[in-house]
Amino acid sequence: MGGGSREITEVWSWNFEAEFQQLLTTIGSRDDVVLAMDTEFAGFLREEKQFAKPLVRYAALRQNCDHLRPIQLGISVADADGRLRGTWCFNLLFNVWTDLYSEASMNFLAAAGLDFSRHAEEGIEPGTIGRRLRASTLGGGASKHRWVTFQGAYDFGYMLRLLTGRRLPANLSYFEELQISYFPTRYELRDELPRGSLDSLLREFGVERHGTPHSAGSDALATLELYFQVTQDGPKRFRSIAYSEASTATSFHTDTGSGNYFQGGYSYNYWTEDSQAHHETGAWDEGYPPS
């Protein structure tokens, strides 16, 4: 178990096609790969306590994901035996002069080394990566890829925005159905490790951090290595995530109880006071594809 490449490849608009293809080549046609995902995003317009009711937490997630941009998407790949195959950090288009954000989050990400001027000039258009994801084995339920996250509710929320080109569903059950459709096999580390930050858990389990903390590539790689360290004594169950009143993790999900180990043109037009009424009716953003 273990070994392989811990190099993190930074991806911008000018090397996107080559590196996305390299990611797909690395995954190949195998169904046994494990992928960890992490996103960095522009903060929160609305926050709810961790132990608020699931419907309340989903309403906050939906508002934030619908109106704020993802800034980075990190994907780390390993074989089923834990051998690392590569990590990619996709740097998305983001402009502090035109896009909504929370100041605390911007300060936090700037301290982690994110270069916002470079994101504005060289960032990947969300529509570009969304189309490539939809057309690839990463973007559909036919894939048996196994996805790992650490507190992954917002990671899946932003990924679904990229994949569908649409606002998140108003109905929580529809959101669950979308998750099952696009990511039928997934594992939330927070279920196994209910306390502690990612960095404190890395230290506890003796996992070395590579790259800069709180950047999506480094966090995805750390999540993947932590997963294999936590599960080295035996198979852990990938679950179909569902919201439940009994959920305590920030990922909002619980076991579905099936008993199987493994189950199986994008644009943003952001909320302003002038467009608030339009957005709160649930209408599509202008420029979204019809399907």
Task: Write up this protein.
This protein has eleven helices and eight strands. Mean pLDDT is 81; it is low at 240-291. It has 291 residues and is α/β, with parallel strands linked by helices. It is globular and about 40 Å long. Helix 2 (54-67) crosses helix 6 and helix 5 (126-135) packs across helix 6 (153-164). A hairpin with a 5-residue loop joins strand 3 (70-78) and strand 4. The strands form two sheets. Strands 1-4-3-2-5-6 form a six-stranded mixed beta sheet. A two-stranded antiparallel sheet has the order 7-8.
**Cα distance, first to last residue?**
42 Å
User: How many helical elements?
Assistant: 11
Task: Encode the helix/strand succession as letters.
Answer: EHEHEEHHHEHHEHHHEEH
- The overall pLDDT, averaged over residues, is 81
> How much β-strand is present in the residues?
5-15%
Number of strands: 8
Q: Which segments are poorly predicted (pLDDT under 50) over 5 or more consecutive residues? A: 240-291
Largest sheet: 6 strands, mixed
